[in-house]
Amino acid sequence: SIKTVETHRAHIMNKLDIHDQVTLTRFALKHKITL
Prior knowledge:
The protein is an all-alpha fold. It has two helices and no strands.
Protein backbone atom coordinates (compact mmCIF):
# COMPACT_ATOMS: atom_id res chain seq x y z
CA SER A 1 0.00 0.00 0.00
CA ILE A 2 1.04 3.60 -0.45
CA LYS A 3 1.02 4.18 3.32
CA THR A 4 3.45 1.26 3.82
CA VAL A 5 5.87 2.69 1.26
CA GLU A 6 5.65 6.14 2.85
CA THR A 7 6.32 4.65 6.29
CA HIS A 8 9.35 2.68 5.10
CA ARG A 9 10.71 5.74 3.31
CA ALA A 10 10.25 7.88 6.42
CA HIS A 11 12.11 5.34 8.56
CA ILE A 12 14.98 5.16 6.07
CA MET A 13 15.18 8.96 5.90
CA ASN A 14 15.23 9.22 9.70
CA LYS A 15 17.95 6.59 9.97
CA LEU A 16 20.09 8.37 7.36
CA ASP A 17 19.33 11.84 8.81
CA ILE A 18 17.88 12.91 5.45
CA HIS A 19 15.13 15.52 5.59
CA ASP A 20 13.82 15.85 2.04
CA GLN A 21 13.04 13.78 -1.04
CA VAL A 22 15.69 15.46 -3.21
CA THR A 23 18.49 14.54 -0.80
CA LEU A 24 17.16 10.99 -0.57
CA THR A 25 17.17 10.73 -4.37
CA ARG A 26 20.74 12.07 -4.54
CA PHE A 27 21.81 9.53 -1.90
CA ALA A 28 20.21 6.70 -3.87
CA LEU A 29 21.88 7.77 -7.12
CA LYS A 30 25.28 8.23 -5.47
CA HIS A 31 25.10 4.73 -3.98
CA LYS A 32 23.56 3.20 -7.12
CA ILE A 33 20.40 2.15 -5.28
CA THR A 34 17.50 1.36 -7.61
CA LEU A 35 13.93 0.25 -7.10
